């Protein structure tokens, strides 16, 4: 039986509608959530991501401001910008689009963001809150993965979950969220022995690797749920055919654009998985939806009871 396709676009839209309703109520009560987006230089991929984030703000009613320091910006200049945003009351969330230019000390810049406004959830204080199960801001992509599982009715508690990838942005936080949701979690990485064997234990397999189609059917327990975080651009025809030979829709798209997006999971896995996120249209759309969610959450957390009091007034 073919896998159930977990439609991230639909789930993300559902979350965006919920956030929009909440933002409307908050705005009516005099507290409009605001997001500052900092985009340094001219990285074309970053520019596309930032456009998507600003557009999402408009759609859900979040106030947004964009800052575009030049490619030659120094660490000191960015720290001054962040400090200014930390002080502005109408700014609830600060997002520094990564990667930053090589001359900038990215860790120092991210550490300067007020943890209460850290809508990416990367600040060590929010990392600590997550690992100790305290209220805080959770990284967007991992939070989105949990939303996909929960809103699709896929049980997490008691399940064997295997996460391939241990980055601070995806692998580690998603493993922590799954642990907090009572899964039994194994984290794998490039030094893991018998990766396929470990993955075959998984009821829930999360691939956050950055290698096109690396997870093949050999890594699968039949019927498992697969979350494919990878976003890899394929441009070569031979590589394209390795994944999509015989897929007329993909072939047409590839002929038109000369490029296509492939996850870390080989498309053949859909034949034996129980449920799977597609690429594109799986995890990707959740990242921006959860950024909107986090901005509204930051606004509520920063203002404490004031929002509740204003809503009652
Ligand atoms: P990183 O490069 O930071 O981390 C990759 C991880 O994969 C590392 O832990 C690395 O291990 C592990 N890895 C690499 N090769 C292998 C291998 N052969 N076997 C086992 N493990 C391996 O990537 P990110 O976590 O930032 O991103 C992962 C993917 O997710 C990328 O494709 C990225 O584009 C995508 N992504 C998608 C998002 C979305 O919104 N959909 C958001 C963020 C990322 P080690 O630590 O040992 O080096």
Automatic annotation (TrEMBL):
Cellular component terms per the entry's GO annotation: cytosol
UniProt keyword Lipid metabolism present: no
Enzyme Commission code(s) on record: 1.5.1.5, 3.5.4.9
GO biological process, one term: methionine biosynthetic process
Amino-acid positions noted as binding NADP(+) in the UniProt annotation, renumbered to this chain: 165-167
InterPro entries named among the record's database cross-references: Aminoacid_DH-like_N_sf (IPR046346), NAD(P)-bd_dom_sf (IPR036291), THF_DH/CycHdrlase (IPR000672), THF_DH/CycHdrlase_cat_dom (IPR020630), THF_DH/CycHdrlase_NAD-bd_dom (IPR020631)
Keywords, in A-Z order: Amino-acid biosynthesis, Histidine biosynthesis, Hydrolase, Methionine biosynthesis, Multifunctional enzyme, NADP, One-carbon metabolism, Oxidoreductase, Purine biosynthesis
Residue stretches making up the Tetrahydrofolate dehydrogenase/cyclohydrolase NAD(P)-binding domain: 139-302
SUPFAM superfamilies recorded: Aminoacid dehydrogenase-like, N-terminal domain (SSF53223), NAD(P)-binding Rossmann-fold domains (SSF51735)
Job description of the protein: Catalyzes the oxidation of 5,10-methylenetetrahydrofolate to 5,10-methenyltetrahydrofolate and then the hydrolysis of 5,10-methenyltetrahydrofolate to 10-formyltetrahydrofolate.
Name the UniProt record assigns to this protein: Bifunctional protein FolD
Gene assigned in the entry: folD
